[in-house]
Every structure is written in C-alpha cells, then in structure tokens.
Design goal:
This protein has 295 residues and is mainly beta. 0% of the residues lie in helices and 51% in strands. The strands form 7 sheets. It has a 4-stranded antiparallel β-sheet with strand order 1-2-3-4, with no helix packed on it. A 4-stranded antiparallel β-sheet has the order 5-6-7-8, with no helix packed on it. A hairpin with a 4-residue loop joins strand 7 and strand 8 (94-103).
Amino acid sequence: YPFIAVSPNGTRVYVSRESEVTVIDTRTRTVIKTIPIADDEASPWNGPIVVSPNGKYVYVLHQRIKETPGVSGMGPETPGSIGLVTVIDAASNTIKGNVELGANTFPVDLAISADGKRLYIGGYYAVGLDAASGTYEPVDPGHGDPWIPDAVLWEFDTETWALSSGELVSVDRQIRDIALSPVDSRVYIATIGEVPSDGSRSRLEVFDTASHTTIADVPVEGLWDLFITDHLAVSLDGSRIYLGSGEVIDTATYEIIEDRLEGYGSSVILSPDGERLYFARSYEGHITVVDAETG
C-alpha cells in the first residue's frame, strides 16, 4: 500500500511504498528522484510518511529485516527486525539518518506537532518471539488475544534526535492511526482489539503528552480495517475529532455528537482551511465530500 504526503507549499508530493520514497514535482508532474530506503539488509516495508511544517524534512516509517538462514517472515516477529523512522532532507532529497525504535518493533503510524519539534510514532512489539531459536508462537500478552500485541507510542525530538526512553503509553489493542490536537498536548489514538463486554472493538484513546497520562478511552464504531490509516482528523480549533467511520466527537466531553456518513467509511482527511472533510469509501470506490461545519 502506498502512502502519500504533500509539502506545506504544495510543490512536492512524497510517495512511500515498498522500499523507496518517490519525490514528485506537482508543477511539472514529473518524478524528481526516487530515494531507496533499504540498505544492505532486507527492507520489504515502508509505511506512513509526513513532512515537517517548515518543509525541510520528511519522516517515513520503515521496517528493516535482517535475513536469517532458515527463518522466513517479514514482520516484527522475524529475529533481527528493527522498526525505524527514516529522516530525509527535503532540499537534497537524501537520507539524513535513521532512528531505531528497538528490536522487533513494528511502527504503524506517525504524526508531527504543529511546531515540528515533536514526532509521535505508534506501533507495537512482537509477542511470542523466541530470539534464541528464531521461532514465533502466538502467546497471550495479558489481555486475552494472542494476535493483538500490546501497542506503544514513542516521542521523538526532531531537534536533538532523542527518542523517548520508554513507551509513553501502552494499550492492549493495535494502534491504527494517531492524530495530534493543533491547540494543546493531546494525542488521539485509533485502536482495535478484542471485543470487550461493551461490544466496541474499536476505541479512541486520548493521551496527554504533557502529563503522560491517558485521559479518555472512548468506544467507537467502524475503525476495524487493518490496512488503512487516516482514520482520524482534528478540527483546526481542536474542538472536534472526525472519524473515518463518520462519527464526530466533541473533545470537551468525548461524546459522539453526530454521524456524518450513511454506510461505511474508512479514511478521512480535513482540508487545510478546515472547511471540508474528504471520506474515502474504500468498499464503495468513491470519495464523499462533507461540509465540516454543517455536515
């Protein structure tokens, strides 16, 4: 699955797919450069990508997997796999460096703060890995579902390149998308997991990066698609969260106040002026445009 990011001035499009990032000039509609992300080790997967607010750097999630004789696989359960954030210098279209998240980590999504100083990465650690033997068996990580590993959130300082020493937050569900509030220190995390007693497999976790505490856990619907990010969008004033399923959440009360869609939606993006919502109807083959204010 390709992932796309656009520069703040709209002149560049960055496409992350497989083991490379393609840079496109939007004015001439030509490819400027294709940047290989892989090195001497296998790199079968690139993930979501973002551009810094000043347009100087591009950050792309990346999985490096070292080939191990007699061991097959291409995920975090593969011995020697490492989740990384690759940093690209946008002026030269070259790799500035890689930030390792740790052994057997799998990064899923990322978001950057409005001032560009903090990058937040959501992902998880593999469970059931015996590093000595190179075997992988599903085990219960503590919440009843062996195939849903504990998910984590990292914080990366883009100025010092310091990575949070420990996970900021750990949830017993898979992270599918993260979004930042444009006005305060909250991070919104879309998750899926086993079905709890209230029947809501999809939930919205609200985490405060200032106090490092979880301040809300909201049951929602329709965020179950494992292969789609962009489940979340936040209004410019921070008062509303828009879900890909069409639901709208009031950030003052964390209550669902309305549903903007009939039927199933998946991804949602808010226009730069905050006036339009674009819902990708992945199973219907079209995009629905909705007025963000009136619905």
